[in-house]
Amino acid sequence: MEKEQRLEAWLTSYGDAVLRMCYVYLADRHLAQDAVQDTFLKVWHHMDRFEGRNEASEKTWIMRIAINTCKDYRRSAWFKHVDLAKALEDMPLAAPDTTEESRALFMDVMRLPDKLKQVILLYHFHNLTMAQTADALRISRQAVQYRLKKAYQLLGDLPERSVRDE
Amino acid sequence: MNKPITDCISENLAGLYITPAHHQQLMQNITGGTKVKKKLTLSLIMALAFILLAVTALAAIVLTRSPQADALARARKALVEKYGLTHATLGNFSAFDKQEGDQWTVRFTSGFLHPSLVGEYKVILDKNSAQASWSFDDVDRATWEKAGLESPVWGQPQLAQALSNPEAADAINMKRYQENPTPPDPNMPDPKVLEGLDKDASYWNGEIVRDATPGQGDLTREQALEIAYQAFAEDFGLTRAELEAGTINHANFHTRDSGGTLWGFGIVIEKDGMLMDCGIMMDGKTGEVLYTNVITGGNG
């Protein structure tokens, strides 16, 4: 597949998910859009390094780049001036049938500490496996488990939120 | 399948997606190698403007120090580094400085704790170095390093304990004074000088100063207070919140018999359950810091 076609395919497949993940991470719509462009720019530049991998690792690779891009944004002076409370007021439109409970849970996810938010986004939102999440974050599976557990404690111990069997 | 979390993100961000136009733009930018240009949102512009104003305000009162104030600050820093003293424990001591050419000698003695207990610290400073010493340097560290107030010599550990347990410390200290009275402190001014002062006059740093009201060209109280806060933050490691929560014991404007004016503040700050009485003198017009001091142990 041509390089440009592959980028097009990846942007189509993962673009929305990356945008939403960046938004949850950065709490700012404009920064999230910028982060998407920077993520796929890195993907474009380093695509040659990504050869012969299956779909799962392709997704892991892109998500790792996205997470690292968000981390860089968080460290930058630009992010330090984002007011989370104001950003939440400027939220994108939710689906019409979104319940109050769903909204409350989403707010709780937004307020999670970065490290816990990362595992929640990759493991739950992007449905990566424990091993893929660990690979994307360059941490051990045990660390993923530990962070998930901590996140569940902060989000409330719903039975549905337990770690998947793998 | 952990649906609640997965679903809540998808549902709540349903309105956030890459539109066909955005998709097209992204493809163009990425394949064209266009890097992101940060967009300035209104809130970001306002935040940056606020920061710019704050920085400008701070820049207007960059601290300057007289050679004496600089020597005192460097001497305290040298003692903190060499002996592990803290600004709180150093507050048991009064500093006396002497200048000879480019060299400053700063001695720290306690007017409250018996010299046979706490000794005297001395720092010799030149332009590039600070040599700190303690009159008990030759005492075996093992005798006091891990000991309590019963130690014959009080170093940092005992000074810290004395601050948290002043009653026990006072008892030991008073016993020392009873057993071994000390001569009057030669560093104190001649009492005759103090007795002859007018009501509106006081004695500071070897000169007579008189209460007055700031005039044109003098710093306002607010400007001078801001300098005091910055100096205390730098010299004694206090946070802005701790400083602003403190009690301003005195804020005095003086004229100097030698010419010029002074602003002086005394602010009592609570830190880690301990009261620190911080004092400063600065030039009344330029704000140059002339002297800072902190008292914690009752050596006033």
Please describe what this structure looks like.
By secondary structure, chain A is mostly helical. Chain A has one domain. Chain A contains nine helices and no strands. The longest helix of chain A is centred in the N-terminal third of the chain and has 24 residues. Chain B has eleven helices and ten strands. Chain B is extended and about 90 Å long. In chain B, helix 7 packs across helix 8. Chain B has 300 residues and is an alpha+beta fold. Chain B has three domains: 42 residues, no CATH class; 125 residues, no CATH class; 111 residues. At the A-B interface, helix 1, helix 2, helix 6 and helix 7 of A face helix 1, helix 2 and helix 3 of B.
Topology summary:
The complex is a heterodimer of chains A (166) and B (300).
Chain A: H1 3-26, H2 29-45, H3 55-75, H4 77-80, H5 84-89, H6 100-110, H7 114-125, H8 130-137, H9 141-155
Helix pairs in contact in A: 1-2, 1-3, 1-7, 2-3, 3-8, 7-8, 7-9, 8-9
Chain B: H1 3-12, H2 20-31, H3 42-59, H4 67-83, H5 87-90, E1 94-100, E2 103-109, H6 115-118, E3 121-125, E4 130-134, H7 156-164, H8 166-179, H9 191-195, E5 201-204, E6 207-211, H10 221-236, H11 240-244, E7 247-256, E8 261-271, E9 274-283, E10 289-295
Antiparallel strand pairs in B: 1-2, 2-3, 3-4, 5-6, 6-7, 7-8, 8-9, 9-10
